[in-house]
Amino acid sequence: MAKRLTPYLLRRALDLPLADKAALIGQLRASITLPEDPAERLRYLSDKMQQVAGVSIADGARTRKMLAARNIFVFVARQEGFTQERIGAFIGRDHATVCIAEKKMREVFTYPKSYIQEINLYNRYVESL
Description:
Layout: H1 7-14, H2 18-30, H3 38-53, H4 64-79, H5 84-91, H6 95-110, H7 116-128
Helix pairs in contact: 3-4, 3-7, 4-6, 4-7, 5-6
């Protein structure tokens, strides 16, 4: 599936500034092979988030852990080109929830010190893809 970083490159990647990490993530994502069927791609992304975060993103819970996982899933799914309506239908929410989740993730990458937990979860998720 995804090309893995060697331990040496992974240590170097963790030392990079946030903007460079985002570029590295973009390069890794380009090497990822996702299923062609859109429904299967969403299911794949959802399953990976469940493995990484330990929560199901379609669950109705509103815990901090659940919301962080759902926001990251929405952010990655939007990067994959899915519409807000399609993502919202998949997670059992409306498009406004998806819009708010995207905005929240932009804040996470703008103010990294206050959102270190979410950034770590995002990095683990993207690495697992």
